Amino acid sequence: MQAPVIFIPHGGGPLPLTDDVRHEALRHFLTGLPSLYGKPDAIVVISAHWQTTQPTLQMMAKPPMIYDYHGFPESAYQIQYPAPGAPTLATEIATHLSQQGFSAKLDEQRGFDHGVFVPLMLMYPEADIPVLQLSLMENMDPAAHLALGRALQDLRHRNIMVIGSGMSFHNLDSFFVDNDQLNEADYHFTKWLIDVCTNPKYSAKERKTKLINWLDAPYAQVCHPTPEHLMPLHVCVGAAEHGEEEAEVIFDGDVLGKRVCALNWFNF
Q1: In sequence order, which residues have a C-beta less than 8 Å from that of residue 69 and are 6 or more positions away?
Q2: CA dist 61 to 64, 132, 182, 189, Å?
Q3: Closest by CA position to 206, among listed 246, 239, 233
Q4: What does the alpha-carbon distance between residue 261 and residue 167 come to, in Å, rounded to a whole number?
Q5: Which CATH class is domain 5-265?
Q6: Per residue in 194-224, pLDDT tens?
Q7: DSSP SS3 for 267
Q8: Are 229 and 189 in contact (CB under 8 A)?
Q9: 134 and 56 in contact (C-beta within 8 Å)?
Q10: Pick from 98, 142, 181, 210: most CB atoms within 10 A?
Q11: Which residues contact 134 (CB under 8 A, 6 or more apart)?
């Protein structure tokens, strides 16, 4: 069975797990994904919230929670997602990445950050699928993250789902501001991103070039003052890259008052 490669928004901290109305559409979307894709044998997550000097794989058999958010009720710091880790898979991927020219590392202490446990609690609440987190690289080089994704291409043919967990819009100072200029910036950048990833008129080379030069997109730095929430998408594009394939939009809706999207590479 072939597993999907998907880029998803993980929302604001633990709020998708609450009754927060600004996450209602995202909650509905994430809970419905298993009905589309079934149950993978394992999940590899590239979260915006883990950045290291070189690609690093989580090695723990029972990863703890990392509550990397602040100012929420005490219950938000009691959340547990007891999915097993995948240390054997981590070792295998690290070896493969090293063969592909990356200086990969293994981390025996890293737990699940909220870019991992929040969406997975909605997607697979049984927590019975092995989960492995892979870090972004601190250099935030888009070409390097596309290449990192290409080194993961074989995973989906082994029924291992690859999830890029970030946000297509991530400007923390703007999430709670209803401003026409910000809304216009958000709309046009998301439109550009969707077009680049889904339009069949682009060859794989053209798509790659546009994503490498994403700062040339309309309002790019307004929507992403820092790039860490976009880079998981680059990894996904690399992981799904075969010829001239394009993605499909599986979510295009409101989260925290801003337009965000999710993309899927599956039926190829």
Answers
A1: 13, 14, 76, 114
A2: 10, 10, 43, 39
A3: 246
A4: 8
A5: alpha beta
A6: 999 999 999 889 999 999 999 999 999 999 9
A7: coil
A8: no
A9: yes
A10: 142
A11: 44, 45, 46, 55, 56, 57, 58, 93, 152, 235
